[in-house]
Amino acid sequence: QVQLVESGGGSVQAGGSLRLSCKAFGYAYSWYCMGWFRQSPGKEREGVAFIENDGSTSYVDSVKDRFTISQDNAKNTAYLQMNSLKPEDTAMYYCAADFRRCRTVVAGSLFNYWGQGTQVTVSS
Fold first, then answer.
1. Per-residue pLDDT tens over the stretch 24-39
2. In this predicted model, what pLDDT tens digit does every residue of 64-106 receive, in sequence order?
3. 36 vs 56: CA distance, rounded Å
4. 3-state secondary structure the chain
5. Dihedral-angle region of residue 25 (phi above 0 means left; psi in -120 to 50 means alpha; beta otherwise)
6. Which positions ≥6 away from 84 have C-beta within 8 Å?
7. Cα–Cα distance between 67 and 53 in angstroms, integer?
8. How far, in Å, CA of 42 to CA of 67, rounded?
9. Which of 3, 10, 77, 102 makes a 20 to 30 Å CA pair with 33?
């Protein structure tokens, strides 16, 4: 059974940094696409950053130049380094993964595997 476990959320002041981790358990092959979504109360879920198994990445405009997604295939783990955090980054962050390409699963949030979420709170 495939399971994604996130960690690294917390509370920081504006301008601070956090690194989220997403470790995958229970699979035998590398993911094609892993990424992070976020959702805050009253808002729709938003795709934040994604990485293909070839290392190519994509970001929502609001986090470009501040967030960096990466992966360590040997550790079955993806990371989201978040710098220069802003209060509007406050949300529950969810890791997602799929064996299909990002172009297939990102637009409609069609990922088959999701983590339980980790809260990120940024105070002004």
1. 888 756 778 999 999 9
2. 999 999 998 888 899 999 999 999 999 999 999 998 999 999 9
3. 15
4. CCEEEEECCEEEECCCCEEEEEEEECCCCCCCEEEEEEECCCCCCEEEEEEECCCCEEECHHHCCCEEEEEEHHHCEEEEEECCCCHHHCEEEEEEEECCCHHHHCCCCCCCEECCCEEEEEEC
5. beta
6. 15, 17, 66
7. 18
8. 23
9. 10
